[in-house]
Every structure is written in structure tokens, then in C-alpha cells.
Design a protein that fits this description.
CATH architecture of the largest domain: 2-Layer Sandwich
CATH class of the largest domain: Alpha Beta
Radius of gyration: 25 Å
CATH superfamily of the largest domain: Dihydrodipicolinate Reductase, domain 2
Number of helices: 15
CATH topology of the largest domain: Dihydrodipicolinate Reductase, domain 2
Number of strands: 19
Largest sheet: 11 strands, mixed
């Protein structure tokens, strides 16, 4: 076969899944076939689409109905590039491994699988000399993973602070901007298609934790899995928390935080942080207050944004639509073009980089700040007792605000007050131990709210 004939041979594309994202991918592959041929150097031909119901009307994809099949195992054996948008662990994992074994490069949007078993997929890609690309797995259309994996590979990333789940951002935004309660805001998100009928993966932070694992792995050249990520969701965020944040000129966001903590010997109740020069990394997902002046505070509705701080590049902001059929398909197609070019020209893209092998620190060693709201007895000496509890755990107080509360019918003879304390940075273990100590003070009627403060 001459070189001209070879260049005319199409690259065979197999699509696994034809839901919202898969439909958009198929449509873009069909509608933009001419441009994609010019960009890749060879035509891209869909040779099959694996679905559960091949008889369903899918005219919007532009794909010949005869190409729909339920035999995904057979389909992946005859493709040059496999696009996996099924989601979940199985059968996605088995299909990806089978595709690689038969010489296909893989493009996936499957953050759950990458966070759970990414190392196995990377190893299979290396063994089979194929590509594994997954830009769409985090933050939808936002070009984020490739900058971390390629553009910033010569720099040292120090911290990533991001809003990577559109559902929770929509819910918290509505609670802040309209005064909606948590349940009402979730219902609004479901009505608009931002939240699933069962929103657990989003509101409990599982989705964001999987994405944080992927981000940390790329940023710190260390293997990080979903099990390594500390996770809290937003189900306990109350209207009072939103109001307290507003009083501080802050907003509440569910943040994915990946940061490098040097071995500087900072101590707290959780022990010494980093006992060698390498230190470690902290990877966590939880709601936090951030100042309204921070770039992430203005991220509204279901949008995503990620703030990256690098040693030489400085602060970088990535912002855009983090979900949806067309935006996610845009990221998928970008990866398809990249791996198809490698098929045409030869070679592969970058594989897994884990040479650092930094220790993953427990949450107790993360450095953060706390906003603590207490219901206390309104009498002399209370503030001194509270301050003593902080001092005993080596936690420094930044600000204190106190205001009287309405009399409690259960204790009409004793006044009580709301005491709000914001701390300086300390280990999470020391801060948590301080809260425990406050809860047992005789002058503290209740610890009514605890929330971390980030972004300063």
C-alpha cells in the first residue's frame, strides 16, 4: 500500500455509550468529519456504537442505525480508538483493558474508574504502547488536565483549589443568592437537569473526591486514589452557615483542595507534619468559606473553576462549563484528535508520572482555618475560658465577635450569647481537638457551627 493510500485509510472509532455525552460525541464526529480529517491527517470513521437498546431512535447522532450494537466486547477488538463514556467501574474497566490489548488507544471521561484503578489502566496503556487520555473526566469542557500534565510539567505545582462539581455549586449559589434552603435548591437543580434523581454522588462529595484524586496525581507526580481523599459533602450546610459567611463577606463553596505541604516540622495535636525534606500532600474535599474577593467566589450557577498555584507560573485560573453533553464532548473530541494524530504520526502521549511518590498526609495534618460559632452563657469569664481552650491546643485566634441572643425559655434566669471565633492557620487535628474541648466547657451551651475557611 502506497503512503497516499495509507493516508486515505480511515482510523476506526468505537464509541461505548450513547447517553447525553455519547450522543453529543457521535454528532460532532459526524458533523465535523471533514475538519477532523484535516486536523488528524486521516479520516475518522465510526465503526460501531455500543448501547443497551440498539432499537432506540438515535437520529440526532447522525450515525447509521446499523452501527449500533450490544456487543461491546467484540466492538473494541476492531477499533483504532475507543471512546468510553459509559461511566462506572464495570464493564468500563474490562472493555478499556480489552481495547488496549487489541492495540486501540482509549479516550475516557470516567473519573470514578480513573480514581479507583487509574494505575492499572496506565500500566496497560504502557504495556500495549497505546494512549490513555481523559481530559473530560474533570471539569467538562475546561482545558485543565492537559495543562497540568504537559504545559506545567516543567514547573512545580504548589496548590490546587477548585470548584469541580456543578451540582453542588448551583445548590450553594442558590442558598446564598436567593435564600433557598438546601432541599429546595437541590430540587431546583434536579428540575434543570444539573442533579440526578439520586444526588448522593454530588452532594456527599464523591464526584468531587474522584476528580481531586486525578488532579493531585497529575500535579504532584504521585499516585492518589479516591480512598486517599478526605471527603465531606454539603448536606450539613445550613442557612445559618450561609448567613455567617455573608457576615464575613464570604461565600460557601464545596472545594477540592490539593496542596503540597513541606516537611517544616509544624506541630499540632495531629503530630509533626512532614518529618523529612519531602513533606507530603494533602488532598481533601469539603465545604468552606472563601472571601468574596477570591476569584472562585464569583463562580455562579453550575459552572466549574479551578485555581492553580505554581512555583514559577504563579496563580492560574481555569473557568467554564463543567458538565453537559456538548461541553464534555468538546473535551472528548480534543483527546480523540490528539490520540488519532499519534496513530498517524507514530508515538504516544505522556503516561503516568509517579516518580515523586510523596506521602499522602491524613486530614489531621492539613493546614486550614476554622470559623466556629458557639452558644455561650452571657456572663463574665466566658471569653477567657474559650480563649484558654484555644491556647491549650496551640491554636491562635484571629477574630472574635459576640452578640447577645434572645432569652432561652428553658433558662430564663441566664442570658446567652452567640460567640463567633475565626482562627489563624493550624493543623486540622489541633483545630478539631479545640472544638471538642469547647464542647465540654460548662459555659458553652452548644457548638452550633464549624466550618473551614480557605482562599486567603
Amino acid at each position: 500500500m502506497s503512503e497516499t493510500d495509507k493516508q486515505a485509510q480511515p482510523l476506526r472509532i468505537a464509541l461505548l455509550g450513547c447517553g447525553i455525552v455519547g450522543t453529543a460525541v457521535a454528532r460532532l464526529l459526524t458533523e465535523n468529519a471533514g475538519d477532523l480529517t484535516e486536523r488528524v491527517g486521516r479520516p475518522l470513521e465510526i465503526v460501531g456504537v455500543a448501547v443497551r437498546r440498539p432499537d432506540k431512535n438515535r437520529l440526532e447522532t447522525g450515525v447509521n442505525p446499523s452501527l449500533f450494537t450490544t456487543d461491546a466486547q467484540e466492538l473494541v477488538t476492531r477499533a483504532d480508538v475507543v471512546i468510553e463514556v459509559i461511566g462506572g467501574i464495570e464493564p468500563a474497566r474490562s472493555l478499556i483493558l480489552a481495547a488496549m490489548k487489541h492495540g486501540a488507544s482509549v479516550v475516557t471521561a470516567n473519573k470514578a474508574l480513573l480514581a479507583e484503578d487509574g494505575s492499572r489502566l496506565y500500566q496497560a496503556a504502557e504495556d500495549c504502547d497505546v494512549d490513555l487520555y481523559y481530559e473530560a473526566s474533570v471539569a467538562g469542557a475546561i482545558p485543565l488536565l492537559r495543562p497540568l500534565r504537559e504545559s506545567l510539567v516543567g514547573d512545580d505545582v504548589r496548590r490546587i483549589l477548585g470548584i469541580v462539581n456543578g451540582t453542588t455549586n448551583y445548590v450553594l449559589d442558590k442558598m446564598d443568592s436567593t435564600g433557598a434552603g438546601f432541599a429546595d435548591a437541590v430540587e431546583q437543580a434536579q428540575a434543570l437537569g444539573y442533579a440526578e434523581a439520586d444526588p448522593t454522588a454530588d452532594v456527599e462529595g464523591f464526584d468531587a473526591a474522584a476528580k481531586a484524586a486525578i488532579l493531585a496525581s497529575l500535579a504532584f507526580h504521585t499516585r492518589v486514589g479516591a480512598k486517599d481523599v478526605y471527603r465531606e459533602g454539603i448536606t450539613e450546610v445550613s442557612a445559618a452557615d450561609i448567613g455567617a459567611a455573608r457576615e464575613m463577606d464570604c461565600v460557601v463553596k464545596l472545594l477540592a483542595i490539593c496542596e503540597r505541604i513541606e516537611g517544616n516540622g509544624i506541630k499540632g495535636d495531629g503530630g509533626e507534619i512532614g518529618n523529612d525534606s519531602e513533606g507530603g500532600i494533602s488532598v481533601r474535599v469539603h465545604p468552606a468559606m472563601i472571601p468574596r474577593t477570591h476569584p472562585l467566589a464569583g463562580v455562579r450557577e453550575a459552572f466549574n473553576a479551578v485555581f492553580v498555584e505554581a512555583e514559577s507560573a504563579g496563580p492560574l485560573m481555569f473557568y467554564g462549563q463543567g458538565a453537559g453533553g456538548a461541553p464534555t464532548a468538546s473535551a472528548v473530541l480534543g483527546d480523540v484528535v490528539a490520540v488519532a494524530r499519534h496513530k498517524v504520526a507514530g508515538g504516544r502521549g505522556p503516561g503516568e508520572s509517579t516518580y515523586k511518590e510523596l506521602p499522602i498526609l491524613p486530614m489531621g495534618q492539613a493546614l486550614t482555618r476554622y470559623h466556629i460559632r458557639l452558644d455561650v452563657a452571657d456572663r463574665p469569664g466566658v471569653l477567657a475560658q474559650v480563649a484558654q481552650a484555644f491556647a491549650e491546643h496551640d491554636v491562635s485566634i484571629e477574630t472574635v465577635r459576640q452578640r447577645p441572643l434572645s432569652p432561652d425559655p428553658a433558662s430564663p434566669d441566664e442570658g446567652h450569647a452567640s460567640l463567633v471565633v475565626v482562627t489563624h492557620t493550624a493543623s486540622d487535628a489541633a483545630l478539631s481537638a479545640t472544638v471538642d474541648a469547647l464542647a465540654v466547657l460548662s459555659t458553652v451551651r452548644a457548638v452550633t457551627s464549624v466550618m473551614r475557611v480557605e482562599g486567603e
